[in-house]
Amino acid sequence: MPNYADMLLRHEESSGFIKARRAPLGFTDGRDEAWLRDLLADNPDVLPIEEIDPSFAPLAPLCTELETEAGPVDAAFINPSGRLTLVECKLWRNPEARRKVIAQILDYARAIAQWDYADLQRRVASASGDKANRPFEAARQLQTDLDEAVFVDATARALREGRFLLLIAGDGIREGVSGMTDLISRNAALGFSFGLVEVALYQFGEQGLAVQPRVIAKTHTIERTFVVMQGPNGAVLQEGEGDADQPSQSRPTEDEVAWWEPLTRIAFNDPEQEPPVYRPRNHVRVAMPSTGMWVTAFRAMSHGICGVFLGGRKPERLEVLDALNEEREQILSELPEGTHQGMDGTEERPGFAIYAQLDDFASDEACRAWLSEQLNRFVNAFRPRLKRVEKR
Fold this sequence. Notes:
The chain is an alpha+beta fold. The chain has two domains: 211 residues, no CATH class; 169 residues, BirA Bifunctional Protein, domain 2 (2-Layer Sandwich), CATH 3.30.930.
C-alpha cells in the first residue's frame, strides 16, 4: 500500500511554502458521512473513475439517497453509455463496520439489478424531486447528441446484466484492504467493478481545504460461466472464466431463486465458514480462505446432474491444486466416497469433485440435503488446508 508524503502549498507573497495539516474525516466541523456524500455528488469529477474502470466515465450525478429494496444508496451516477456508479460513504470505526458496508453495497447492487429503466427513472425522480427523464437528461449534459432510445436500451441492458461500478469512499480504509476486496470478489453474483476510494483532506491554515481522493484498491470484472462437458461418465459441468464483455447469463426465475434459498442458510461444522452465496442461475458458492478459491454446488436440470467441486480462478486454482495434491490421498479419505478429479482437473493436476444424477433423489429436499452434506465435507477438508496455503 503506498504512503503519501506531506502536501505543500506555495505562498505567492512570501515565496515560501505552507505545509498542510491532515484533516481526518469525522464529526468535527460537520465533516461526517453526509458531508462526504454531498461533496462527491456535487463534484463527481473528483472521483478517480478513469483509474478504476474507464467504461463508467464520465459521471453524471443522478441523486443522493436513491431508495432501493435493500435501503438507500448514498449517491448514484450514470454515464452516457447507461452504466451506473453507486457510491457508499463510510467513516471506518471497526472491522464490523467494514463488513457491514460491503454487505450493504452488494445488497444495493442486487436490488437494482432487478429494475428496468422505468423503475430507475421512477426511483431517481422520487429521490431528486425531478419528474423529467432525469437519467437521460443528466447523461445528455455530458453528450449533447445522445439518442434517447439508444440510451434507454443501453441502460436497461446494463441494469439487467448488473453492469455497475460500486465504490466505497471514506477515510482510513487501508488496513485490511486485501480481505475486503477478496470478500467482495467471493460474494459477487453480478458483473460489476468495485473500488475503494480514500478521501484525504488537507487543511492549509486559513488558505482553505484540499480534497484528494485516492484509489486504494480495485477489482477486475470477472464473471463465471458453466460449460457442459461430455466425459466418459456422462455430462458434467466445468466452471470457467467468462469475458466481462460477453452478455451475462439470463435473469433467474423466482422458482430458481427459491430452490437455492435453503442452501444459503445452511450451517457448517466450521464456525468461521461464511454461508453459501447464490449465483444465478444454477449454483451456490462457498468462499474459501484463499484468494480466488471457492467450493461450488450446482444443479444442471437440462443434463440431469448435480454436484460439488473445488473451484477458483485459473492462476490461483492451479497453484492451489499443486499444493493440495501433495496430500491427495489424505484429502480423499476425508471427502465423500466417489470424489474424483472432475472435468476441471487433469491427470497431472487432478481436481476434487463429486457428481450425482438428479433421478437418484426422491425430492428436491433430498437433493438439497445431499448437496448440503457434500458442501460441509468439502469445507471441513479444504478450509484448514487453504488457510495454510494462503499463509505461504
